[in-house]
Amino acid sequence: MDTNYIHSLFLQCSSVSIDTRKIETNSLFIAIKGERFDANTFAKEALDKGASYVIIDDKSYFIDQRTILVEDSLITLQELAKFHRDYLKLPIIALTGSNGKTTTKELINVVLSKKYKTKATVGNLNNHIGVPLTLLSFTSETEIGIVEMGANHKKEIEFLCELATPDYGYITNFGKAHLEGFGGVEGVIEGKSEMYKYLSANDKLVFINLEDPIQVEKSKLLKSFSFGINKTNADVNITSIKANPFVTIGYSDLLIQSHLIGLYNANNINAALTIGKYFGVTDSEIKDALESYIPENNRSQLVQKGSNQIILDAYNANPSSMSVAIENFLQLDNANKVMILGDMFELGDESLKEHKAIVAMLSKYENVKCYFVGSAFYESKIEKDNLGFYNTFESFSNDLSDMKFDNSTILIKGSRGMALERTLEFIE
User: For the domain bounded by 301-425, which CATH number is listed?
Assistant: First the structure.
């Protein structure tokens, strides 16, 4: 089926969907096969719920003239997204990295939306399906598109860049994330740097953090716009950063007081500030945008329960983000500190070593109570009065019900699969 023809039908529709639970009237439904389901079976349901057209790749589910039969629905989605991106010809900023992608994307969006009609990746729809859906959400009214790209093995970022063809790029950092898929830290660096290779080959611009030697080295032959802390050679020179617990940024005559917790969020803010400056957003608009942003979805949220202040960072975790979260937490003023840390996933053969490293790091501190939850941390167990180890969340919750926290600052961090936000139910 001709992509140009499918695109003409797509333009007649109000939206595109791959989930019949979210069907809108006059939408285009694309039936994607998953590991546990075949969306072709939902084609009739999609039409009954108001979809104008459905794309299927199994002829046994053909219904009527509203059905478009293709060889592969996923490839059709991707080709349609690339065609639509080329059709719109709008500037696109792409970003990837081991930590902070989604927060940075949200910050860039709130800053640029002060001057432009922007559209950004919703949530973390940043893979081979999410990026096409993001591209298809852009319209002729969109002035700048912001596309988050995730990856857990090599060649993914390369593929996503070929789809989105970004004009600008930013890599938040190169950390210990998805080590299993990338085959180690060097694999992470190589995989994320595929964005640099694309931008270089197409004479595009990269935003770089001069504090990160890997970024500096990997992007040295590219057109760039930079930021740094007390670096006069940076295009945007950040004069100060503080966090206790909220991040405050000094730039020029500005003092930006954010609602983000932890020094590890400083570069996320700095990147958004820098990109705003590049695109001509005024200083006062940048300040207003960054100060108005309030995180949600378990990302560095500050939650008050009774006399306790809780830093809820339970959306994701890897050795890099875990280490910086702990380091920042240990610097806070409150004397009554408690940590509840959950397993870090997708580390492959490095898992036990990395969990043991976190335990060893915290074993040096006598005055901080730390509870480790999950089988990997439990396997790293050591005997120390201020450290507790639990194989499952259920066993931890049994003890947690009897624990009393008063005037404590509590860090909750773990991989998404640990769902440590459940801990909030047991803290009064």
Answer: 3.90.190.20
